[in-house]
Amino acid sequence: MGIDLQEELKNKITEHGIDNEHDPNKEDVEQLLEGVVEAVAESSDAITNSKNFDVYCSLLKHSDAVPGAVMTKLLDSLTSGFQTEVDATIRDAATEDTEAISGHKEALDMYAFLLHWFVAAAENVKSESEETAPASKAKPKRGRGAKAGRTGGRAAASKKNMEQWSWQDHIPNALKLICRILEKLPAQYVWPTSMEREAFIKCITLPVYDISVNESYMKVADIKKGVQRAICLSVKSHGQGSTASTKIMANLSFHEHLAEPMAECLSIVEDEYHHPELADEVLRDISTQKFSAQDTKGPRTFSKFLVRYSEVCPRHTLKQISLLLDQLDSEAYPMRIAIVEIIGNLIVHLDSNSGPVGSQENTQSTKQINGLYDFLIERMRDVTTYVRTKVLSVFTRLCELKNVYGRSRLHVTRIAITALEDKAAAVRKNAVVLIVKLITTHPWDRIHKGPLEMYVWEREYEELLEKWAPYQEKLDKFNLAEQPSQVEEEEEDDDDDDEAEEEEAEEGHETATKQSKRQNKRAQGDDEMDVDEDENENDANDDAMSADGDESESQPRPSKKGKSKKASKEPHRKPRQSQLNPDALEALRLMDEKEVKELRLTKKYYIEGMDFMRHIEDAMVVLCQLLGSTNKPEALEAIGFFQVAHQYKMRNAQCGIKKMLHLIWQKDNSVTSEDGKEIKGVRSRLLECYQTLYFDPIDDLDARGQVSRIAKNMIELTYGATLAELTSLEEMMRTMMANDQIPPEVISKLWQIYTSNKLLPKPQRRGAIVILGMLALAKHNILSELDHVETMLKVGLGALGKVDLTLARYTCVALQRLNGSAKKVKGSLDDKTMRIEMDSNIFQKLKQVVLQPCRSKDWFGLAEQVINTVYALGEHPDVFCNDLIKQLTQRAFTYGPQAESAAEDKENDPDVMDEDHPGDVSQADSQEPKATDLGDAFHLSQLLFVVGHVAIKHIVYLELVEREAKRQKDEAQAADKKATQNHTARGPSKDAEELDQVAGNAEDEIGEQMQEIREHELLFGPESLLAVYGPMLVHICGRPDKFKNPTLKAAATLSFSKFLCVSSQFCDEHHLLLFKILEKSDSANIRSNIAIALGDVAVSFSTIIDENSNELYRGLSDPDLVVKKNTLMVLTHLILNGMVKVKGQLGEMAKCVQDPDVRISDLAKLFFKELSTKDNAIYNNLPDVISHLSFGEHAVDEEMFHSTMSYIFTFIEKDKQTENVVEKLCQRFQLSEDPRQWRDIAYCLWLLNYKSDRSVKKLIEGHRFYGNKLHEPVVYERFTAILNKARAAKSKDKPDHELDEFGKLLEDSKEAGTEEHDLTKRTKSAVKKRAKRPATRSTRKVKVEQTIEEDDDE
Questions:
Q1: In what residue span(s) does the Condensin complex subunit 1 N-terminal domain sit (predicted)?
Q2: Are 743 and 663 in a shared domain?
């Protein structure tokens, strides 16, 4: 019997015909197999017996019914028989016995066929029963059991595998057999014809490819190596290159897991078997493939394959790169990504094998690298985000290369900075990562050892130019500025571009240097902190600062070659011998050419380094914006950038460090997941950054020095900080203190600085108490110790505080923290605040500091905090404020001697502060006679300011009194209730329930009493002190023509605004005056304060403000930016919290979306974004917004209308909203005759998404409203664009009949409308002409009548 492999391989293997087929379900399979196994074991030729062969075939055909032990036994029999037959063939081939060799052909074919069939059958078994993890065992059907082999060991193994059997465990041995056959078998002698030999090789290699398509198998190292080796041997020894190429390409198209194993296989074929043709063929096939953009799996697999192959075999990839570059134009972005990554791998390969600098190999590699860089740079314009992101990732990896310096790095830096403004967050994030990598791997560390301090570089660059000056003079003297020296000629071809860059850098160098010097002087002036008695610390700091400078001076400082600016612009040409001046040659010989070359290279080093630093500094503006990104990874990378920039001492890095403080308010989890990776939250990353920069110890500094350094860093964070920055810093310090991240030694050091007797800079002592106050929010015992309180009274409210009012103000803020930061629980009556008797020394000091003679505007901030402190700590703050107001009143209205003695008081009392500029605190009118002045305007301003602030603080105090009264009442009621329950043995009686009801009524009475005091007693009570000043404020604010002092007007307006928040009666009577001031005042400061005050008044008495709600929006059109911003913020707060009703004024808010100022625009966009979260808020007000912006006195130009509405319409997302908006907008056409409104309505319709059929139907139904308006070209274009948008959104399986009819209807309406429009024009023209004719006829009639009358007279 024989078998024709060629025919068998054409059909399915299960279709093989079996003459003597056995059914395992009816026969004992083990007994059936036993005889065949023994026969094959005795002689491998026994397989040619048809009975034996049919048994094998029957069992394989019904493998799903064969027990696992039998399958193992069958496989062992096949492999051992096959092995024996191959060994016999090899022996016979050695004897060159042709007849004996050909005798093995039939048996080898049968063994190959059976092995092929077994692999297919085993796969079927696995696919049905091994559907768990890759390493899990199969559980085939159980057999009846039989002898498994000749030895006891084999029998035991069969019993063990009876229950479980896995084909995966036997694959490595099967692959070893296949590899041995491919490597040792002399196939050319066994099968004389190529077709027969090809069939056999194909039959034993097909199982290899079948095994490879199973992902779980290829995860096993032995199986993967066996598959790769079998493919390599088939290609190398049996000419299966074409077959292997076809199989690899086919498998890559469908099996993604084969990408990397097949790439490694091609590398093995080339490196170990020296057969690169297979890789060439595969790469050529891939380069000609056309990948569709809709296909995701195929391109991704080939992408992985190419990337892996370029990693393991870059040399051969480089040879075929010209073919692969065609895939840069592929529609599938994974292929473009792959080529980008391949280019990166090739650059790494070329760099590592570039040879020594100056060699021919190095020159060739550099040219190739530059060419590959050009492809990467070109890909930064790719339309796909993923490709641009990958380019930046590749650039980041290439920063580690040893030869990527100078120009290449600067070019990459510019690319990264440009990418910071990319529209995709992933690109921006990778751009930040690249910039950080460029900084950390920068090559300009040969002199300065890492830091990039611009002022150091500029200073040393100026010194370098001074060194170069003598050489420049000699060259200029002999006209050699344009003649390169002998040393320079060797490198001029390579340095032409460098000279151009140097020239460009030098042009802007002088201006940049001057600016940096001014910045550095200011920076250096604040660096010193004379706070420690130990002078060694200062010495250590000084040594650290001068270390870099010493090292740079110890090395030679060569500079740029001697060429003037004019010379560098012209082409460098080697002069002829006849053109050289002998004197010039002699001058060159006298020069040290080595030193000239070193100077030239050093100058180039400095110019490139400073150029790099300037690029990074310019990018910090954009990076500061990225700190506020809503994309968390992007914000995290921006934080990391500023941390690195600060560590490298880059200029302006401190701005970003301060701005990132605001991220402390981020509410995020500690970790998030991005692409399977865990990353820290923004808040956690921020705290870690500050901990690293300011609190972690540094080397070469003792413990005392570490404490001083940390204290110095904390204090410097307060320098020049705005109110917002101080608020964020406060939250950070509170958090770090609560987490025990601030050592006690640092706190002691801060107290030491605050109480130091040395003459310290004012900001330094202020910063110490500011930080202490912040830390006290977490642990108030930092301040509550008695000696610390006395210290603050002695320093902050003593002699130093009287001289420095800002220090006194911050001391007052710190005193307020004695109560800690325990937040009141809503509804709770507990009051854990500490109250101090009014005879305490604290209040005496506070009164002294606020009543001291002073004419500085800093007094107002101090007075505010003094009053806050009294109300925070005092048991009876009204007593303190009553006395304070009376004394200030007496001073304000005491004129004559006190005013005249102000100068004398200043001389006698050294604590009196200097006056402000006369223009700031001048009296009402310098031209008015002195007799009309009733007092000092500044003293009156102080009085009014205190009165207003006391009024607003007293409202808060009344709430505390109310809460305390309720608490006491609650305790009394609880005691009575408990006593009542003790008298009754049962549960709560009817009397107890009545008692609860009475308690509730008592609480209501307390609230009503407090409300009565607020409404009528504070500002209108006969015994109220504040009631005296209400009419005074109204009078001063209402007579700006009489009271012209700016400080007085500002203080009076502010206090008047606070009075309006106290009583609804006072507000109702005088609120219109506040609107009048807002309208007429020429002071932006006053208007800004009123804008904020109106928000407070609206919160207090919303019904009164609702009547004049239009006035709230007046500030949005104010020319002053601060007024506009404050108004926008107040309105945002009021509207989003439902405190005012929107009555068609939302259009004014919409105008701010396109405001030229970025802060206003961002605030407006944030408002609409938050408003969109309210139920249909934007949808309900959309018609009013369109009307407000489209026509009327508030209308804007069309361009601004389009940009504004395009943003607002992004919040109309629901299909139901879209349908209703379409219907309403269509109806607007019939109400308007203005073409401008038609265009605006059509534009709004175009902005909607026509995803649902109902919205399209509504548009078609509204044709009767806009059909006669389509003659307007812009309107017709918009409706055509809407039609195209609807067609694009329509499902492909739905017909477009309705849209086609709508398109035809639009076209017909346009033609009809155009004809009607033209007819109207002609009619109007005819009417005008006709209007002239009656006038002519009447004239003739008059003339005829006159003639008749003349005849009658005659």
A1: 69-244
A2: no
Q: Say yes or no: 1131 and 1192 in one domain.
A: no
Tell me the C-alpha distance between 244 and 273, whole Å: 15
Handedness of CA 1163, 1165, 1169, 1175 (dihedral sign): positive
Q: Within 928-1043, where are the H helices? A: 937-983, 990-1012, 1029-1038
- 962 and 1101 in one domain? no
Tens of pLDDT along 427-478? 999 999 999 999 998 888 777 777 888 888 888 888 888 887 877 776 666 5
Quickly state the pLDDT bin for 48 (edges 50, 70, 90): confident
For 1147-1211, what is the HEC assignment? HHHHHHHHCCCHHHHHHHHHHHHHHCCCCCHHHHHHHHHHHHHHCCCCCCCHHHHHHHHHHHHHH
In a domain, 77, yes or no: no
Residue 169 confidence (pLDDT) above 50? yes
> In the listed set 1179, 1211, 1243, which residue is the last one of a domain according to the structure?
1211
Rounded Cα distance, 1261 and 1302, in Å: 10
Same domain assignment for residues 669 and 734: no
Q: pLDDT tens digits, residue range 712-721?
A: 999 999 998 8
Count of alpha carbons within 13 angstroms of residue 1270, beta-carbon side = 24
Task: Please give the span between the terminal C-alpha atoms of the chain, in angstroms, as a whole number.
Answer: 153
What CATH number is associated with residue 1128? 1.25.10
Per DSSP, 698 falls in state -
8 Å CB contact between 1048 and 939: no
Residues 1100 and 1242 reside in one and the same domain: no
Q: How many domains does the chain have?
A: 6
Residue/partner pairs of 1012-1016 with CB below 8 Å, 24 or more apart: 1013/958, 1014/955, 1014/958, 1014/1062, 1014/1063, 1015/1063, 1015/1064, 1015/1065, 1016/1063, 1016/1065
Which pair of tokens denotes residue 726?
């101080």
Residue pair 949/863 in contact (Cβ under 8 Å)? The answer is yes
Q: Which of 73, 53, 200, 61 is nearest to 121 (CA)?
A: 61
Q: Give the residue numbers spanning the domain of 857.
A: 697-822+834-875
Same domain membership, residue 509 and residue 451: yes
Q: Position 1317: which residue type?
A: H
Domain termination residue (choose one: 1085, 1118, 1141): 1141
> Residue holding tokens 């105008």?
1151
The rounded distance, in Å, linking the Cα atoms of 113 and 799 is 106
Place of tokens 């002999």: 478
For 331-370, what is each residue's pLDDT tens digit?
Answer: 899 999 999 999 999 999 888 887 776 677 788 888 888 8
Phi-psi domain of 145 (left: phi exceeds 0; alpha: psi -120 through 50; beta: other): left
Query: Which tokens sit at 696?
Result: 């972690």
Name the H helices within 627-652.
632-647
In terms of domains, do 1195 and 1248 share one?
Answer: no
Domain co-membership, 891 together with 1004: yes
973-991 pLDDT tens trace? 777 777 776 655 444 555 5
CA distances from 124 to 65, 134, 214 (A): 12, 15, 12
Alpha helix (H) residue ranges in 875-927 = 877-892, 897-900, 902-908, 918-921
Q: Considering the domain boundaries, does residue 1332 fall inside one?
A: no
C-alpha to C-alpha distance for 870 and 684, rounded to whole angstroms:
37
CB count, 10 Å around CB of 586?
10
pLDDT in tens, 575-607: 444 455 555 555 555 556 677 778 888 888 888
Instruction: Note the Cα 176 to chain centre separation in Å.
Output: 54
**95 inside domain:** no
Tell me, yes or no, whether 258 lies in a domain: no
| More reliable by pLDDT, 1339 or 229 | 229
Those residues whose C-beta lies under 8 Å from the C-beta of residue 143, and which sit 6 or more positions away, are 29, 30, 66, 67, 69, 70, 162
Q: Greater confidence, 318 or 1288?
A: 318
Report the mean per-residue pLDDT for the chain: 79
State the pLDDT at residue 569. Answer: 39
